[in-house]
Amino acid sequence: MATILRNSSDDTLCGYPTDATSLLEAQKHRASPTPLPKAPFSALCAIRLVDPIAFTQVFPYINEFITRLNVINDPSQIGFYSGIVESSFAIAQLFSIYQWARLSDIVGRRPVVIFGTLGLVIATAFLGISSSLAQILWARSLAGFCSGNVAVIHSVLGELTDSSNQALAFPIYALFWPLGAIVGPLIGGSLSNPASKYPDFFNFRILRTFPYFLPCIVSALLGLFGVVLAYFYLHETLPRKRRLSVSQGARVPDSYGATDIQDAALPAPPPPSIAGLLSNPVIRALSTSGFALCFIATAFDVMFVLFCYSPIEAGGLSFSASQIGYSLAVAGAISASIQMVFMPTLLRTFEITKFYTFCMALWPCTFAALPFLNVLARIGLDTGTGSIDAGSKVKIWATIAIVLGLSRVGCLAYSISMILVKEHAPNPSSLGSTNGLVQFSMCLARAIAPAFVR
After folding, report:
1. Angle of helix 390-410 versus helix 412-424 axis, rounded to 10
2. Percentage of residues in the chain with pLDDT exceeding 70?
3. Which residues pair with 12 in a beta bridge?
4. For the chain, what percentages of helix, strand and coil (3-state, to nearest 5) are there?
5. How far apart are CA 21 and CA 112, in angstroms?
6. Quick one: how far is CA 251 from the chain centroid?
7. pTM of the prediction?
8. Strand (E) or helix (H) holding 387
9. Which residues, 6+ apart, have CB-to-CB distance to 406 below 8 Å?
């Protein structure tokens, strides 16, 4: 894949031939980065935060949730049913993601981003009052369907930035997935069963009847805040829509979008078909490697949660829902630190395709390190009390930090993939469809990975 991308980038830039003039312009851009439009970029980051919170807040308590429903008699089958719940989100997203992206190339990015996120908010709130496995599956499927607009959100980022400021913008934007991966599990682990955990504050009938309503409604309210910000501050970025706004005399910020006002004056080509996109070897390589990346990363996330939940005697760590939430929050904190501190410098320093390959190569080491956690737990386990001694707990949490740190470095490949998609989209007007295709491949992997792991 690195060879394909390197050969392509020698001849084209963002889908267009390079010449001496464009190289001079690129040098000017590097010397003077284009300012980021702060309000739209902030609104986009807030919207980006909604998806990981809604997706991950269920992880700490999903096994416990299914157990409370009494739909199974064999506890060993909990992993199978929780895997179905987790896959339902990804399967629904899989079947909607390209359609959302294609629709955004026609009607515009802004309405798709706002309405999709609003649907995700509603689905998350409904999950909290679910009382059967069928209702849980319906809520998670609706959430997955609405979160299919993630490719459109990526496209807005590409249209907000150019080559001079993407090394700053993409790491900041990518920070909000790990930030959501911190907030989501903390919400799910800390606020589940609030009437039992905090009876002085949350001893209400609704919270006793629906013990997982509080984390769901808090997640939904955070999502609603993102919708409000997007409504007021996120403007349209689709080149054709911007061109219409310019022709009607509307003010478009000078730095707003990957295409400038001169580009907006050019006629927009129709969005390419799936076959047309796949005929491009770079897009095909990005779709294939994106599938592999998401399959591996999702398999690790699902395996890690099940590994933490399983008894020590069965090869796990016997963690509670709160401890699982804290460990996932550790992963998010590590990822956020890497994104903010190291990612901008790494993008400016290393050749992007080699960096992508390095991130992918870390995953085998990450999986190989998991069994050592169980070894540490077994060494420190007091068989009489069933507890682990303090020294072993410190070693276990330190090793968890190392293992999760490796996994978060591997996940930097997601940010790099977004940049590569932007640089190799056939034209600015087809950025939504191109992102949709690559994200479709990733969602397909996310949908089937839990079934293989469980």
Report:
1. 10
2. 85
3. 17
4. 80, 0, 20
5. 36
6. 32
7. 0.71
8. strand 387-388
9. 362, 365, 366, 369
